[in-house]
Amino acid sequence: xxxxxxxxxxxxxxxxxxxxxxxxxxxxxxxxxxxxxxxxxxxxxxxxxxxxxxxxxxxxxxxxxxxxxxxxxxxxxxxxxxxxxxxxxxxxxxxxxxxxxxxxxxxxxxxxxxxxxxxxxxxxxx
Length: 126
Fold this sequence. Notes:
Elements: H1 6-30, H2 38-43, H3 47-56, H4 61-86, H5 97-125
Helix pairs in contact: 1-3, 1-4, 1-5, 3-4, 4-5
């Protein structure tokens, strides 16, 4: 892999932090299936998404479909972030910071929307 510009590395960092923050929320969503502790869920790669997918199936009917949509959207965006990162090792891959910042923005936006939905779900059923 060729050397990356500092701006590109910074954008990759922002994307990685945004993806990890989204995974942390997913681990929290899925933690009820592991005794309420998100740490073991968060510690295993890929487990936050799997656990959240399992947990939202049991959400209250009023929020279930929307939660499922957001969790699936999270899975899609996380996969896109991984694909963009892995593509760096391909010849002629896009290496501009805008690519990673676009993905990071979608991850942050989705994390915010999912977080709001989870909060409203908790307030309605807490």
